[in-house]
Amino acid sequence: MTSHLLTGLRPYGEDPTDILITDGTIAAIGPQARADAPEGTTTHDLAGLVALPGLVDIHTHLREPGGESAETIFSGTRAAAVGGYTAVFAMANTDPVQDSAGVVEQVLRLGRQAGWVDVHPVGAVSAGLRGEQLSEMGAMAASEARVRVFSDDGKCVWDPVLMRRALEYVKAFDGVIAQHAQDPRLTEGAQMHEGALSAELGLRGWPAVAEESIIARDVLLAEHVGSRLHVCHVSTAGSVEIIRWAKSRGIQVTAEVTPHHLLLTDELARTYSPLYKVNPPLRTSGDVEALREALADGTIDVVGTDHAPHPVEDKDCEWAAGAFGMTGLETALSVLIETMISTGRMSWRDLARAMSEVPARIGSLEDQGRGIEVGAPANLTVVDPEVRRTVDGAAQWTHSTNTPYAGMELPGQVKATFLHGRPTVLEGLPVERDA
Ligand SMILES: NC(=O)N[C@@H](CC(=O)O)C(=O)O
Ligand SMILES: [Zn+2]
Ligand SMILES: [Zn+2]
After folding, report:
1. pTM given for the model
2. Which residues participate in Zn(2+) 2 binding (predicted)?
3. Domain annotation covers residue 368
4. Ligand 1 mean position to 183 CA, how many Å?
5. Ligand 1 centroid – CA 306 distance (Å)
6. How far apart (Å, rounded) are the C-alpha atoms in residues 268 and 107?
7. What is the CATH number for 37?
8. Ligand 1 near 281 CB (within 6 A)
9. What is the distance, to the nearest Å, from the Cα of residue 250 to the centroid of all Cα atoms in its chain?
10. Do both 289 and 195 map to the same domain?
11. Is 327 in the pocket of ligand 1 (CB under 6 A)?
12. Ligand 1 touching residue 400 (CB < 6 A)
């Protein structure tokens, strides 16, 4: 029997208490925790720190197989643990693509071997992400990986017939289609948000309507089919309006916002540094305000990092040649503290809902996102919200250095993470399993 006694921490930022973890489960909370601690229990003094349920990322790119020069399942999941995560959904745009039972089972296995977080492979919607025929969705759902989230992320499922079939297909096992909403024709050659600034800088624009028109179509398809739609990385005020309308009609739609779209704006394109190049692009301060409001009022359900590591040669170049994407696993919680907690827009309980409970529910996980209660699996994140740190891309655990926050001071640090009762992070540092 392995036991850990966590003393003095504040669940959801509330009154300090003690938590006893025994054999992967929260065994006691409060005075009973010390009383029940068996011989040989390891005690961790975490006085004053905030405890949250282990974070769940609905949108991570781990890059393996095929993109190991940017990230591996090991390096990406270790970065996730350091960022406070206990589960990640690994996007399908790998090489080979995660479009068959064989590939998703391989990703599952590598995730288990690494042991930093639970890895849930996302299945591709279309074979090879080609947008032509459906992938082996049923086989992936029935595989050991039990795939429930399907996405062609990186590409939009553009063909409305294919989208309709995908939505119909996943109903059989309560799956969900996560759409990367980007009309490819309206965004050909696009480099940044379309607006006054793109005109001034002479960069081809990515108009808001290219996202909004796909979301509008997809919520109507989801309604027609009676299936579940999840919208990836919502980035415009207009998208928020459409999702708000869809929810008011009872359409089964959930939506995600990234940390970078909650904090950064298109003004950063003035630097011409590809570190700020991402898909969908950074938008205006008006969009940022609408996204914060939507996350606070629940129109946007969850935060997804869209952690998108890229090798240095794809970012250390001119803007037009740069790859789209930013890393985010190690900074997500800090950005959320900065934008939503410090501003009083969300409580710690709200944050736990958006970063743990609801992402777990969208992905049909039963042993994650359960909250801090006796009997729940001991997936916990312990954060010091008071520390302020300057982000250093080279000092992160991800294999890539394309963080847009380099040089910025952000609040908060994850001090400890527990995965099914085992510490994966202590004192802010990853703990090797055999240690
Ligand atoms: N977000 C990005 O800019 N890039 C992602 C793909 C995606 O999320 O659309 C990637 O895989 O690099
Ligand atoms: Zn995407
Ligand atoms: Zn993505």
Report:
1. 0.98
2. 153, 180, 233
3. no
4. 15
5. 7
6. 35
7. 2.30.40.10
8. no
9. 25
10. yes
11. no
12. no
* Best mutation site among 306, 310, 399, 402 for ligand 1 pocket (most ligand atoms within 8 Å of CB): 306
Which residues have C-beta under 5 Å from ligand 3, the single-atom ion?
A: 153, 306
Q: 336: domain CATH number?
A: 3.20.20.140
Same-domain pairing of 195 and 142: yes
Which residue carries 């989801």 as its tokens? 222
pLDDT (tens digit per residue) in 106-121? 999 999 999 999 999 9
* Domain end point (choices 329, 362, 395): 362
- Residue 355 near residue 336, CB atoms below 8 Å: yes
Residues 43 and 66 in one domain: no
Q: Are residues 161 and 286 in the same domain?
A: yes
CA 153 to ligand 3 centroid distance, Å = 5
Residue 413 lies in a domain: yes
Residue 59 annotated as part of some ligand binding site: yes
Q: State ipTM.
A: 0.99
Asked if 306 is an active-site residue, the reply is yes
Q: Is residue 371 part of a domain?
A: no
Q: How far is the CA of 12 from the centre of ligand 3 (A)?
A: 29
pLDDT digits (tens, 9 = 90+) for 43-96: 999 999 999 999 999 999 999 999 999 999 999 999 999 999 999 999 999 999
Boundary-marking domain end, from 362, 397, 418: 362
Q: Which of 356, 419, 413 is nearest to 390 (CA)?
A: 413
Does 356 share its domain with 384? no
Structural domain of 151: 54-362
Q: Do 39 and 63 fall within a single domain?
A: no
Q: Give residue 85's identity as a one-letter amino acid code.
A: Y
Number of domains composing the chain: 2
Q: Whose CA is nearest to atom 9 of ligand 1?
A: 154
Out of 95, 306, 316, 434, pick the active-site residue.
306
346 and 381 in a single domain? The answer is no
